[in-house]
Design a protein that fits this description.
By secondary structure, the protein is of the alpha+beta class. The protein is 24% helix and 46% strand. Strands 2-1-3 form a three-stranded antiparallel sheet.
Length: 63
């Protein structure tokens, strides 16, 4: 099992930026990895995230 490093941005008044490490398989599509990243971030932040436009980018993948 590999890992992916995902950068998540939430455009609030303060422009929140997070970096999350996500476990993934070699053949996982980007949408699945990004969805897992948002889920992990939500758990880390106590169950809720601020409102705002959301953007995600996979920075690096390892197999």
């Amino acid at each position: 099992m590999g890992k992916a490093i995902v950068k998540l941005n939430i455009a609030t008044y303060a422009f929140e930026e997070y970096v999350v490490e996500v476990p993934c398989e070699k053949d996982d599509v980007e949408e699945i990895i990004i969805a897992r990243a948002w889920k992990i971030l939500k758990e880390q932040e106590g169950g809720s995230l601020p409102y705002g436009h959301r953007k995600a980018e996979i920075l690096k993948r390892t197999d």
